[in-house]
Amino acid sequence: MKYIFEVRIKEGHTAEEYADIWVRASELIQRAPGARGTELHRKIGDPSTLIAIASWESKAHRDAMETQHDAEIDEIIRSAAPFVEVRPIGEFEEPQWVVRPAAESRKK
């Protein structure tokens, strides 16, 4: 499953500031069972808007990670709170199947 959220950087701060914090928290969160990686993307034309995508083996794995409050992770996330607004977009199931053009398959 995918957990997706939007991050808006407040004026006077940069996406790079948030990215440093995000990487530190993500490295710890990704140690949890079922974690499959994270990505952080900057919106084209709006460097103060980011989207984060966390991949998990299942919703149950992500929920289990959320119930195990890690003080270090909580502190890292709190350190970004003064200069970002985070809006969860939602939890999404993996697609039943994926169709890709043949040319894209050859690139891998």
TrEMBL record:
Molecular function (Gene Ontology), one example: monooxygenase activity
ABM domain segment(s): 4-63
Domain of life assignment: Bacteria
Keywords on record: Monooxygenase, Oxidoreductase
Signal sequence, renumbered to the chain: none
Keyword Zinc: no
Protein name: Antibiotic biosynthesis monooxygenase
Organism encoding this protein: Microbulbifer thermotolerans
